TrEMBL record, chains A, B:
Reaction catalyzed: Release of any N-terminal amino acid, including proline, that is linked to proline, even from a dipeptide or tripeptide
Gene3D superfamilies linked: Creatinase/methionine aminopeptidase superfamily (3.90.230.10), Creatinase/prolidase N-terminal domain (3.40.350.10)
One GO molecular-function entry: aminopeptidase activity
Enzyme class of the recorded protein, top EC level: hydrolase
Keywords, in A-Z order: Aminopeptidase, Hydrolase, Manganese, Metal-binding, Protease
SMART domains associated with the record: AMP_N
Protein's UniProt name: Xaa-Pro aminopeptidase
């Protein structure tokens, strides 16, 4: 997938940016589901993958910046392991393919690190996102688990973000592979969904394609008639004629890159008049956002423009009122659009989210907002050539939120609560595509899917692909 | 699925067996795949499920035996959580359904435990199988992570094993549901497999059924033309006419109970003469084992009898020689049958494996053997009414193992290494069914699947179900 030279260049970039000390990158281990040997599908840590590319558990890598030394610590399997899991390529051979010549046993890691620390070297490591990292780092570095995050290296985080933000041509190809699997998943969902099936039947079909054509899904697929529940993983409802099905899913390819696309479509093949009105508002918001994508454009402003477009539309429906700009400034749009417009995508579906959204999606001067509706906007900073990101506006009617805000007496200037009652059970809709920022604009990635209401209805009736 | 009374009775049984002190049971948390919020499908800890039945992350339960107090520690979701994940039933209401009236916030847990410990109460807890348990238990009990296992409670382990070993009628029904999904998975694999498809295509079909009809797979399905690799998770090979496909898979139902069945079938619809010869030997071993199942029967002896039957068969093929009993006594059968004949099944596909195989499958006087071919025999002790277990003999030709043993000069009295070379690339076959031990014998669970070579060939040709 990637050449030895590309891995060497990535590490050279990292070394230049971090400068001095020692970089410690922990690969992921296997995680037991209900006992140690019944494991979840193994997923290598994305940063480890980016710099070292090896898809095996139990590895740790060290880059000693002062001695310009790169070592992978890991152990080759025993005969028992070969009997149960088959022969695997030696670690030394795998390491050579990514340009690393030094391989040592895990048993040497602690002493190696101890030696470096006793010489006063700074150890750069990342904040843990799995308990296994905490246990491992705490034992290796003699730092108490609750203190690990504050001892992690901001310099290392910033360097990784800088490198991983700009996708290479080879990375974009991997993302497109993942998206093309995802396009197949979306088409399949639209092809099979029909009254009397359950959400879980469509979920099964969508998952099957990810498992058969890639290495699985890049996140647990959301397949729901209750699109207003943003990360809905219940899937026991039966589909009925009047329902819309929201399908948000992604395939993952062997290299680890993720797809992520959403479509919302009517089980009856045609949207009802009300459904179409709301869909068109969301689609207008999507168009507005997409047209703004170019290097230098603050993504926070794209989010706000997309929100304003939604407010404008809801004013024509009579659900909102007043000045759209002012409504967005006061956060009234968060009644219907509670989440972020998009996020970076790459080796992670929310790319680099484990490094901290402030570092990934914002800057030293642009702080991530913590108020409702903005704290889930993962990307705010100016777009750059080579970024890959999603655009995913949505309109969601959440009964619990409506009741809460009404009780609080909030947004009275902008919301017609009486009119809103009629939409209480509307549900939620979203559309999501993935874009690459180019030198002067943006380019959609992956094969085409029906996107406008008309295109979706045409596909639902004809099953003819674009 | 289970009545409030059944949960109360299970805990009453536990209290009686453990006697005094305080029982601390940690539920499972969510595990990030590549960042904290991108989570693997949540799976509750099986012991927590058995006694408390609640399928939510972030819970801990305490049973204070001295005060006869049962408390679940957990927190209800915030509005942010409701927006993203939908409304969920309050913890109090869920607790009431399993007969627990005391619910406290997680923030109170540390103080509650501290108070109990300062009064000199013994805290019974289980050995951790996920790093999250280690981190949680270490912080709560002020025990260093490497010391947790030795501080865990053998009394608690033994009490749980005693209770969970004997399945209630309601539990057997749940296992049958899981098995019937698994039967559908097996039929689907046989129906769709054909030349030029990839293993991953069949894997996708099999997984789809588990996802659509249950909550997923009870372990990562093995779908491979290289059946000799016992836990093979590579699935990129193309199926060809001469191949046999080994499919070992299980569905899991909402209550957490597991299915686990294996079939090996010819892509060409008919076995070759050599394939059929080896299949028949394995099937004879299966029949021998099944006929021996009854209360009081040492399962280690069933394993040995099944191994002997394999040796007898391989002698007729000319691959082995000498006295079958002696061959098994000296371990020569482990050249072809490297794993255990079966394991308990219930909430876990290897039931209670996290509690330690010595406690689950053996006794104080019957120690688990540690030599090759026996260290993966998870069950050795006498069978009891109400046990549910698998029977899964197999014959595997592992080139790396053949080469190793030949080089070591082992088993020369029993193996014809020259003849064996002809079977070097045969692959591996297995059949696996699940049985309930009854008062005077055993009963197969779940709908019927083709099992003998003839039945399998008939299904492959006709697609007519039994």
């Amino acid at each position: 997938m990637f050449t030895t030279q590309e891995y060497i260049a990535r590490r050279a970039g990292l070394k230049k940016l971090v400068g001095e000390g020692l970089i410690l990158l922990t690969g992921n281990d296997e995680v037991g589901i209900n006992f140690e040997d019944n494991i979840y599908p193994f997923r290598q840590d994305s940063t480890f993958l980016y710099f070292f590319g090896i898809q095996t558990f139990g590895l740790t890598a060290i880059i000693d910046l002062d001695n310009d030394e790169e070592i992978i610590f890991g152990d080759d399997p025993s005969i028992d392991h070969i009997v149960f899991s088959g022969p695997i390529e030696s670690l030394e051979s795998q390491a050579r393919k990514v340009g690393v010549s030094a391989v040592k046993s895990v048993s040497e890691l602690s002493e190696y690190l101890g030696g470096a620390v006793s010489k006063g070297k700074k150890v750069h490591f990342l904040p843990p996102y799995r308990a296994e990292h905490s246990v491992k780092l705490s034992a290796l570095l003699h730092v108490a688990i609750p203190k690990l995050e504050e001892h992690s290296s901001v310099e290392l985080i910033k360097a990784i973000v800088k490198l991983r933000t700009k996708k290479s041509a080879a990375e974009v190809l991997e993302i497109e592979k993942a998206l093309n699997i995802t396009v197949e998943m979306q088409y399949r969902a639209m092809e099979v969904a029909k009254p009397a099936l359950k959400e879980s039947d469509v979920f099964g079909e969508v998952s099957k394609i990810a498992l058969a054509k890639g290495v699985g899904t890049s996140f647990p697929p959301i397949v729901t008639i209750n699109g207003q529940i943003l990360h809905n993983h219940y899937r026991g409802n039966e589909l009925s004629e009047g329902d819309m099905l929201l399908c948000d899913c992604g395939g993952e390819v062997a290299s680890g890159y993720a797809g992520d696309l959403t479509r919302t479509f009517p089980i009856a093949k045609k949207f009802s008049a009300t459904q179409k009105e709301v869909y068109d508002i969301m689609y207008a918001s999507y168009r507005t956002a997409v047209e703004m994508l170019r290097p230098g454009q603050l993504f926070l402003d794209v989010h706000l423009a997309a929100a304003e477009k939604i407010v404008e539309g809801l004013i024509t429906l009579g659900l909102m009122k007043g000045d759209p700009k002012k409504a967005v400034a006061e956060g009234a749009h968060t009644m219907f659009f509670q989440c972020g417009l998009g996020h970076l995508l790459g080796l992670d579906v929310h790319d680099m989210e484990n490094l901290g959204e402030q570092y990934v999606g914002y800057t030293d001067t642009l702080k991530k907002r913590t108020d409702f509706g903005f704290r889930s906007l993962r990307l705010g900073r100016a777009l750059e050539e080579g970024m890959v990101l999603t655009v995913e506006p949505g309109i969601y009617f959440i009964p619990e939120l409506i009741d809460l805000r009404k009780k609080e007496g909030k947004f009275q200037e902008f919301i017609d609560y009486e009119e809103l009652e009629k939409y209480r059970d509307f549900g939620g809709i979203r559309v999501e595509d993935v874009f690459l920022i180019t030198s002067n604009g943006a380019q959609i990635l992956g094969n085409r899917l029906p996107t406008s209401a008309t295109e979706i209805e045409e596909f639902m009736v004809s099953h003819k692909r674009l």
